[in-house]
Amino acid sequence: MPQTDPKTIKAQLRKGELKNLYYIFGKNIPEVEKLTKQIIQAAVGDNEEFALNKLDGRYLDTSELYDMIQMMPMMSEYNCILINDYNCEKPRENMAGLRGDDLNKKLMETLKDIPPQTVVIFNVTGFEIAVKSDFKTGRSVIKDKNKKLADFAEKSGELVECPIKTENELAKDIAAAVSARGGLISLDNARELAVMCQSDTLTIKNEIDKLCSYAGSGEITADIIHNLVHRQSDVTFFKLADAVSAFNKRAAFEALDELMQDRDNRGAVLANITTSFIDMYRAACARKYGKQVADVKADFAYVWEFKVKNAFRDSSKMSIRRLRECIRILRDTNIALNSGGCDEKIVLEQTVTKMLMTKN
């Protein structure tokens, strides 16, 4: 299943070439969102209010979609429709009495009749599509039911994968971004920054903002990077939060031990643990008042939906009262660490012990 790369699509857009159907996916979520915006801009310009319809894939009504597809554009050359996070594995949020295959089939039938004046964009930013790597081409091949929709888009329009960039590619992007802000960074240091951020483009952008603010028009050196940037850990902070919520002492201390390997950024470790518990507290409060994942993601401007989903899952094991108590313990730990004169590892181990002793 061949895919078009983002550079090719951007080149097409510069030439004024637009397809009627796009399917955009990949692990590089910021790039997915950026490319989506560029296609929309090419289609409707500044007339999004009149010529763009945004639909949530979890609640997609194919009859409504068909009517939108057939509409004539208003105040622009194209009528544009953006469908975010339609998942062929589970087409609806509530599948009671429905069959996924039937809904997918209706969608395919609807997409067969896209008129020349309409551009339909499917993009995936809130869930992960199961893929495998084709060793011959190096491209990703979709393994789950989303493959049918992706294949259809590839035949009728464009199928675009936005993969995580290599560290060398990111190093060039970082150097260019720093230069655009009047600063300087070597390619070696830019590559090190990419490694420390695990090639996450959103994290890299935030770190560039911080580093440029600190260095100004001077050079961002290796010492500055190592003093200001927290090296991302493969062990997620959700693992520790999940272990505490489940009263799993062994798993909690195993996660803490791995996180504590970063000796130079133990304050950042505490900050990230605290963030995980605040996420769970928000999710628990939202659940109490009948709110959903999408509501929390929108209200608190989360970029990654999986973080909200993890928070909903883990918070279901903890009462709001217990979550408040854990956040209070973390607050006191922060005060203790900032006061100085204590062993950070011992303080954090005591913190985890206290949280494990709290009761629902």
UniProtKB/TrEMBL annotation:
Name of a matching Pfam family: DNA_pol3_delta
Signal peptide residue numbers: none
Keyword Nucleotidyltransferase appears in the UniProt entry: yes
A single GO cellular-component term on record: DNA polymerase III complex
Catalytic activity: DNA(n) + a 2'-deoxyribonucleoside 5'-triphosphate = DNA(n+1) + diphosphate
Single GO biological process annotation from the record: DNA-templated DNA replication
Entries under Gene3D superfamilies matching the protein: 1.10.8.60, 1.20.272.10, P-loop containing nucleotide triphosphate hydrolases
E.C. number: 2.7.7.7
Residue span(s) of domain DNA polymerase III delta subunit-like C-terminal: 237-354
Name of the top EC class for this enzyme: transferase
Occurrences of domain DNA polymerase III delta N-terminal (ranges): 22-125
Matching InterPro entries: DNA_pol3_clamp-load_cplx_C (IPR008921), DNA_pol3_delta-like_C (IPR048466), DNA_pol3_delta_N (IPR010372), DNA_polIII_delta (IPR005790), P-loop_NTPase (IPR027417)
UniProt KW keywords: DNA replication, DNA-directed DNA polymerase, Nucleotidyltransferase, Transferase
Claim: Nucleotidyltransferase is one of the keywords in the record: yes
Family: Belongs to the DNA polymerase HolA subunit family.
Protein name: DNA polymerase III subunit delta
Organism: Ruminococcus flavefaciens
